[in-house]
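Long-time lurker, first post. I've been practising inverse folding by hand and with some scripts of my own, and I keep getting stuck on stretches where the structure tokens seem ambiguous. Below is the full token string for one chain I'm working on. Before anyone asks, I'm not after the true native sequence, just a reasonable design that respects the backbone. If someone could post their per-position residues I'd love to compare against what I wrote down in my notebook.
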């Protein structure tokens, strides 16, 4: 049996980053991953690189360019004859990006001397040397031993009861990213992050999109001003059709189409669609891991129970990323990975959950960090608000991207920034200023006094900071 200082289960952003950092620190490392791509080939990088963050952003970009060429170019005085889509090419561009990045992980493993093992890992037990794992690939099983183990097995899409994913009619994220033709009528269940991003892609490429949501409003956990602006833009500009307060009834799938029966306020309704994406959240991958054999607990939702340092009930085992509590985000998994490995190496580490940014890559993008106005009200924290629209910013006008605003929430007494919420162009890039500011416990006055380049979108953040004190200059 081979022995390693550290064995990592899962090669997503949690697992592969942990493996590289551990190798940098001189540990002997094995990383076990079972993912196979559409060609039935092992592919490192987990959900994020293969069927999540990366391919979705590739299709979002392609579809946005298609929308821009049809609707925005004319404002710039540029006319083109009717644009068309070559979906096969769009998909192969996406796949090339995925292959480059997943191949990049394999290269980094080689470079850092990480032993990469393909197969399904499960716990067998413990001996004096450490934790014993069985790795199964096809019919063969080998056992390996890790003095320490990190579980980074990620998550998978939650299916509706009695409606399994077939990725022909009923699609999960993998199916939604791999369509080979644009469905005429696309149904989406769940208006969360995946529903909105995938809805944007296929709407811009020509589908009629209907999104059925159980909650009574859009993005209930997002700051209410941002969610209201987003709903306005998604319905008016993008022409997404939402149904809220939906109670699903029978869903029948046949070769031609899918009929979804549902109720809103006891009124029966139905839609018929050609494809259905089910995006109602994700569940942690802990099935067939046999956690009980090494004394680690799994909660009622399937998450591995960990303390604030990601350590499980077994002191030799840690768990990170989507398989544990906290937001299911790639950058959260990566930061936990580094923190755990450095802690194993004897360093003192910490991940600040209060400054993890969120981004929704619709057009315009939505990004935020810290508290929402609703959370501050519930906590009874006194705060001041500064808001500034992109419509009053020269760079946004030049870009023809004037929708949205920046909203800053600052403590009423200390002026410390408690949250920043952006809906607008390049919000994913702009939000980093807020993350840095909050990490350094900056006040809105600090941002107000920092020089921001002109003309730039970041001036909207500057003006929003000035607006906290009622002294925005360009409005
Ligand atoms: P994963 O990336 O899920 O990796 C886990 C790996 O472990 C997988 O390869 C899995 O096959 C393997 N595995 C599981 N069980 C075993 C086992 N027993 N033995 C061996 N291997 C095993 N997040 C963002 O931050 N930004 C985004 O833009 C974003 N976009 C997304 C878009 C979509 C469509 C989806 C679905 C997700 C998106 N996410 C995004 C979320 C992000 O993908 C996850 O938060 C992230 O991948 C979690 O990383 P992880 O390492 O915990 O798990
Ligand atoms: P989600 O949790 O974001 O949204 C699920 C939505 O489905 C919710 O609005 C919920 O109310 C609704 N819902 C649940 N059950 C329902 C039912 N029976 N009928 C109708 N609606 C129902 O989950 P989603 O979109 O599947 O994404 C999973 C996770 O993946 C995200 O939470 C996020 O962590 C990650 N992700 C991150 C992205 C990013 O960072 N840009 C992009 C995509 C995914």
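-- Answer (accepted) --
I ran through it position by position. Result:
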């Amino acid at each position: 049996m081979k022995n390693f200082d550290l064995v990592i289960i899962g090669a997503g952003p949690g697992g592969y980053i942990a493996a590289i950092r551990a190798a940098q620190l001189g540990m002997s490392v094995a990383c076990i991953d079972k993912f196979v791509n559409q060609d039935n080939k092992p592919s490192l990088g987990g959900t994020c690189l293969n069927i999540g963050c990366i391919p979705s952003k590739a299709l979002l970009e392609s579809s946005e360019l298609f929308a821009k060429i049809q609707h925005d170019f004319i404002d710039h005085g540029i006319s083109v004859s009717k644009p068309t889509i070559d979906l096969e090419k769009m998909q192969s561009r996406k796949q090339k990006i995925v292959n480059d990045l997943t191949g990049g992980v394999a290269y980094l493993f080689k470079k850092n001397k990480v032993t990469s093992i393909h197969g399904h890992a499960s716990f067998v037990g413990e001996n004096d040397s450490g934790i014993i794992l069985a790795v199964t690939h096809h019919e063969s099983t080998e056992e390996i031993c890790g003095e320490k183990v990190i579980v980074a097995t990620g998550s998978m899409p939650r299916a509706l009861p009695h409606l399994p994913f077939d990725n022909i009619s009923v699609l999960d994220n993998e199916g939604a990213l791999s369509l080979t033709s644009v469905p005429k009528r696309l149904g989406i269940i769940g208006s969360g992050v995946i529903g909105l991003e995938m809805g944007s892609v296929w709407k811009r490429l020509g589908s009629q999109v209907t999104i059925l949501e159980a909650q009574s409003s859009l993005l209930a956990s997002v700051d209410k001003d941002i969610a209201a602006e987003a709903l306005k833009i998604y319905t008016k500009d993008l022409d997404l059709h939402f149904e809220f307060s939906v109670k699903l009834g029978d869903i029948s799938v046949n070769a031609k189409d899918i009929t979804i029966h549902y109720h809103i306020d006891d009124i029966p309704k139905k839609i018929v669609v050609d494809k259905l994406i089910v995006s109602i959240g994700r569940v942690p991958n802990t099935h067939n891991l046999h956690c009980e054999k090494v004394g680690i607990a799994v909660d009622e939702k399937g998450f591995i129970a960990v303390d604030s340092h990601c350590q499980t009930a077994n002191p030799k085992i840690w768990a990170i990323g989507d398989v544990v509590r906290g937001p299911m985000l790639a950058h959260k998994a990566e930061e936990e990975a580094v923190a755990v490995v450095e802690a194993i190496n004897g360093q003192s580490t910490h991940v600040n959950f209060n400054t993890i940014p969120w981004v929704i890559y619709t057009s315009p993008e939505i990004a935020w960090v810290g508290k929402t106005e609703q959370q501050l009200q519930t906590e009874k924290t006194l705060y001041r608000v500064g808001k500034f629209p992109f419509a009053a910013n020269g760079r946004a006008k030049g870009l023809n991207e004037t929708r949205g605003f920046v909203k800053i929430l600052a403590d009423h007494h200390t002026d410390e920034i408690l949250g920043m919420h952006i809906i607008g162009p390049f919000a994913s890039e702009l939000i980093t200023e807020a993350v840095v500011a909050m990490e350094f416990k900056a006040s809105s006055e600090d941002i107000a006094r920092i020089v921001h380049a002109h003309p730039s979108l970041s001036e909207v953040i500057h003006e929003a900071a000035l607006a906290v004190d009622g002294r925005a200059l360009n409005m």
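A couple of notes from the structure itself: Residues 9-15, 32-35, 46-48, 52-53, 56, 120-121, 152-155, 173, 194, 285, 289, 321-322, 328-331, 333 surround flavin-adenine dinucleotide (ligand 1) (CB under 6 Å). The chain is about 30% helix and 25% strand. Happy to go over any region you disagree with.
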